[in-house]
Write a structure and sequence with these properties.
This protein has helices at residues 15-32, 55-67, 89-101, 122-133, 159-165, 173-190, and strands spanning 39-42, 45-46, 74-77, 83-85, 87-88, 111-114, 119-121, 138-141, 153-154. It is of the alpha/beta class. It has a single domain (15-190), classed as 3-Layer(aba) Sandwich (Rossmann fold), CATH 3.40.50.720. A 3-stranded mixed β-sheet has the order 7-4-9. Helix 2 (55-67) packs across helix 6 (173-190) and helix 4 (122-133) crosses helix 6 (173-190).
């Protein structure tokens, strides 16, 4: 299947997804009763300052620790074969800001995917961060980092946001990765 549109059925596979779907459905229902709301469905996003409980930031932290000599040149990983649609958080926030300052028609149909439309393999993200480090780093699987019920590919179609909000992602993903790694390098050098 290709990228998901806003009309794709919500099919959460975990509690976190179920709570997001429930909130989305509730706001959609309330909009029938007059609530002026815009629902966003942002796909994975990352950027400098993100918690290392998220995959890109986790990898970048480990690479930065290796670069600063605080860790042996080994990265512990979960499933590297999953593919996710990643955006820079600054692009996601820009979509929110565009919607906040414009006077849009609202209603049950006012829902927007915020996505790049391009799935990226987690392994490729790790390889790019390792490449930016310039260091030979061993990659070790950690069974504790694997998630049950993981979806193999998640990708969104943001053409509706592009058309109605005149929004498009601007930050190249390579720049996002460099900025996240730079953030963690600053953290490592200050501790």
């Amino acid at each position: 299947p290709g990228p998901l549109t806003e009309n794709a059925p919500l099919r959460p596979v975990n509690v976190y997804g179920a709570t997001k779907a429930a909130a989305d459905l509730m706001i959609g229902q309330m909009s029938y009763d007059g609530l002026r709301a815009i629902r966003f469905r942002p796909f994975n996003h990352t950027g400098p300052g993100q918690s290392d409980t998220y995959v890109v930031s986790d990898f970048a932290r480990q690479v930065a620790e290796i670069m600063s000599g605080k860790r042996e040149p080994v990265i512990h990983v979960g499933n590297l074969e999953a593919e996710r649609d990643f955006l820079d958080v600054r692009d996601v926030v820009r979509a929110y800001a565009i919607a906040a300052v414009q006077d849009f028609e609202t209603g049950p149909d006012c829902v927007y995917n915020i996505a790049s439309g391009r799935p990226r393999r987690i392994r490729d993200i790790l390889d790019a961060l390792i490449s930016q480090s310039g260091i030979d780093i061993e990659v070790r699987e950690d069974p504790g980092k694997f998630r049950p019920n993981e979806i193999p590919v998640a990708c969104g179609d943001a053409s509706k946001a592009r058309e109605r909000l005149n929004w498009t992602p601007l930050v190249p993903f390579e720049q996002t990765l460099a900025d996240v790694l730079g953030y963690w390098r600053r953290i490592c050098s200050s501790h």
